[in-house]
Specification:
By secondary structure, this protein is α/β, with parallel strands linked by helices. It is built from ten helices and twelve strands. It is globular and about 55 Å long.
Length: 265
C-alpha cells in the first residue's frame, strides 16, 4: 500500500483527504491519504518518522510551510516563494515544492484564460507570494497591492518586473489589467470584497483564492461586471492535482478529484 498525507496543525478542516482518496479509488490504487498533527517542536521527528515508515509524500499546511525548509531540499520555486506545501520522499531524499503556484496557473488555464498581459495580485502573504511568482514566471507583468504597502514593495522587489502598491490604488491598477487574484482571506468570514466593485470590468479574469464560501462577494461583483470568474476551489483542486502527479508519476483523475472536493465545500 502507498501512503501519502498531510502535515499541519490543525488539519481536521482539510479537504485534501477526500480529494486524494477519490483519485486513488478512481484509478484503482492501493493507497491511502492520512493526516498528522504534530506539535511544532516535533516537526523534524515527524518528517523523519514519516520517511522511515515508507510514506511517499506529504502535503504541508499551517503552521509548517516555512519551518519545513530546515528539513528538506526545496526547489527553486519554493525557495523564491518562501514556502513549501509538498514534500516528496524520493530516492534523492526529502525534496520540497510549492504547488500553490501551479494551482493558480492551472486554475486560469482550466477556464481558457490566456496567461499574458498584466495581473494584479491583492495580498502579499503566502498565497499572494505564490500567485506573484507563478504569474511572473509566465511572463506576465505583476502588480502587487497590499494593505501594508511596505510588504507589497518587499515582495515586488523579488519578483521580476513587479511593482508594489497600496489597496487605495486598486481603481487605477485594475483599469488596464487582464488578471486579478485575491490572495487575501477577505470574503471568508464576512460578505465583503477587497476590491471596489466599480473597478472591475469585462476584460478581467478574476480568481478568488477564498473557497469558503465558494461564491464570494468579489466573484459576484466580477460576474456582474462581465468578467470571467474562477472560484477558489479550482486553485485548491489543482495544487492537489500537482502534488498527486509529482508523487505518483500518473495523470490525475481531475474530474473525480473535483467532484469529491465540491461535495465537501
Amino acid at each position: 500500500m502507498q501512503v501519502f498525507g498531510l502535515l499541519g496543525n490543525p488539519v481536521s478542516h482539510s479537504l485534501s483527504p477526500p480529494m486524494h482518496e477519490a483519485a486513488y479509488d478512481e484509478l484503482g490504487m492501493d493507497a491511502r491519504y492520512v493526516t498528522f498533527e504534530p506539535d511544532e517542536s516535533d516537526l523534524e521527528t515527524a518528517i523523519e518518522g514519516a520517511r522511515a515508515l515508507g510514506i511517499e509524500g506529504l502535503n504541508v499546511t499551517i503552521p509548517f510551510k516555512q519551518q519545513v525548509f530546515d528539513h528538506c531540499d526545496p526547489d527553486d520555486l519554493a525557495t523564491r516563494i518562501g514556502a513549501v506545501n509538498t514534500l516528496d520522499f524520493g530516492e534523492e531524499g526529502v525534496t520540497g515544492h510549492n504547488t500553490d503556484a501551479i494551482g493558480v496557473t492551472r486554475a486560469f488555464e482550466h477556464h481558457d484564460v490566456p496567461l499574458d498581459g498584466r495581473a494584479v495580485v491583492v495580498g502579499a502573504g503566502g498565497a499572494g507570494r505564490a500567485a506573484a511568482f507563478a504569474l511572473a514566471d509566465e511572463g506576465i507583468e505583476v502588480t502587487i497591492a497590499n494593505r501594508t504597502v511596505e510588504t507589497a514593495h518587499e515582495l515586488a522587489a523579488n519578483v521580476d518586473g513587479a511593482s508594489g502598491h497600496g489597496l487605495d490604488e486598486l481603481d487605477g491598477l485594475l483599469a488596464d489589467a487582464d488578471l486579478l487574484v485575491n490572495a487575501t482571506s477577505v470574503g471568508m468570514e464576512r460578505d465583503e470584497s477587497p476590491v471596489p466593485g466599480g473597478a472591475l470590468h469585462g476584460d478581467l479574469a478574476v480568481l478568488d483564492a477564498v473557497y469558503s464560501p465558494i461564491e464570494t462577494r468579489l466573484l459576484r461583483d466580477a460576474r456582474a461586471a462581465g468578467a470571467t470568474t474562477v472560484d477558489g476551489g479550482w486553485m485548491l483542486l489543482y495544487q492537489g492535482v500537482a502534488a498527486f502527479e509529482r508523487w505518483t508519476g500518473r495523470e490525475a483523475p481531475i474530474g473525480a478529484m473535483n467532484r469529491a472536493l465540491r461535495a465537501r465545500i
